[in-house]
Design brief:
single chain; 410 residues; alpha+beta; conserved putative lor/sdh protein from methanococcus maripaludis s2 fold; Elongation Factor Tu (Ef-tu), domain 3; 32% helix
């Protein structure tokens, strides 16, 4: 069986050639620096040691701020807006009047329903009086029946007298039942009139559009004089902003990686930082709030929300708010100050100072940035010295004088 190893060898040669080319280009770029004359002082550079310790690794996700509660204020009845009772963008209290719809038609409906209720109550009183009269007549006719029955049996009264008394008693009983039924109808009319009055009062109350929560009231979507109805959409929105919510989306893999932190009670182990649109870090730390119920199958991502304290309601819904959180800890990471790393044609180079104080250009593989430091994944060892400032005027192999790096390295 013939094994072809030439292509693999070519890849190694080409990779090495590209690796050397980067170093060669860096060296050529610095050949313009004039070499120090014999006996001239060595160039002075600022140097720092490669340090090694555990560092947090952050994840960052683009987010958008939103109110914790966003309550739309809508009209429930049809009418014209008479007045606006708040200043847009200010804090309002629950129950505070925001808009007034013309109440006159609804007050008239209340008055009419109130009158109908009074009429229904009066009808009950009248029907109860008729019932009392009917019961009295029925009692008298019942006594007549009881009187004529023994007299007819003793032939002291005619059978006709008994029959007439019996028929009258039956008619009076029917009048009593009719009077009772009329009272029930009148009572039902009272209930209907009371319901109509309650509805009219509710509609009258709906002419006052009040804030359902404490929060910041937004821009009025309709102005005084506009005709509003239940189909008009919200006239404004009130949002609670302290704390404020930040929605952000992470990949399914990141979500699984954060599983332990998210599974803790209330997600308290996942501390969040908020980076605003101008690049500043918001001074108040946030907490994990919730994860959406499902992963979006079209994107493979899931939506999360964090809560951030918002004293003074400085942050507002719709603002850009990038979320940052520690996703893991990298053990024994190698760190150098960021100015020590120079990017050139997609590669990263570091000037390493040898034990003989001579400079060598070395390519490195960089990782995450942690504060003012850069994590070096490959190419350096702990304790080595690197040039942090002054490398622009150095040629490879030149001997240098060093002094400690004056910038911040933490």
């Amino acid at each position: 069986m013939k094994v072809n190893i030439v292509p693999k060898f070519k890849h190694v040669v080409w990779a090495s050639a590209g690796f050397l080319a980067v170093i060669l280009l860096a060296a050529i770029a610095r050949l313009g620096a004039k070499p120090a004359a014999q006996g001239a002082p060595r160039p002075e550079v600022e140097a720092a040691q490669v340090v090694q310790h555990d560092v947090p690794v952050y994840g960052e996700w683009v987010g958008t701020l939103d109110g914790l509660v966003n309550a739309d204020v809508k009209a429930q009845v049809t009418g014209y807006l008479l007045a606006q009772g708040y200043k847009e963008g200010t804090f309002v209290k629950k129950g505070q009047l925001l808009f007034q719809i013309d109440p006159r038609p609804f007050q008239a409906a209340v008055d009419q329903a109130d009158a109908q209720l009074a009429q229904a109550k009066a009808q009950v009183i009248q029907d109860e009086a008729q019932l009392a009269n009917a019961e009295a007549e029925q009692l008298k006719s019942q006594l007549d029946v009881e009187k004529y029955a023994p007299l007819t049996k003793a032939e002291a009264a005619s059978q006709q007298d008994l029959d007439n008394a019996t028929q009258t008693n039956l008619a009076n009983k029917a009048r009593v039942q009719a009077a009772k039924a009329a009272i029930e109808v009148a009572k039902a009319q009272i209930k209907a009139a009371q319901a109509a009055l309650d509805t009219a009062k509710i509609n009258l109350a709906f002419t006052r559009l009040t804030s359902p929560i404490d929060g910041i009231a937004g821009v009025a979507q309709l102005q005084v004089g506009a005709l509003v109805s239940a189909n008009s959409g919200p006239v404004t929105t009130v949002s609670t902003l302290d704390p404020i919510k930040d929605y952000f989306t992470i990949s399914e893999q990141e979500y699984l990686g954060l599983g332990n932190a998210l599974a803790s009670p209330g997600g308290q182990r996942l501390k969040l930082q908020l980076v605003l649109a101008d690049g500043t870090v918001y001074p108040h730390e946030g907490t994990f709030h919730f994860a959406d119920r499902a992963v979006d199958q079209s994107t493979g991502a899931i939506r999360l929300a964090g809560l951030f304290p918002n004293p003074g309601n400085v942050l507002r819904p719709g603002q850009y708010g990038k979320v940052r959180a520690v996703v893991r800890t990298q053990k024994d990471a190698l760190l150098v100050p960021q100015p020590a790393v120079v990017e050139q044609q997609g590669s990263y180079l570091v000037d390493v100072i040898g034990t003989d104080d001579r400079v060598a250009i070395r390519p490195v593989k960089v990782g995450a940035q942690v504060g003012t430091m850069w994590v070096i994944q490959e190419g350096l060892r702990a304790g080595e010295r690197v040039v942090v400032a002054g490398q622009q005027n150095l040629a490879p192999g030149v001997a240098v004088r060093t002094k400690p790096f004056s910038g911040s390295g933490s």
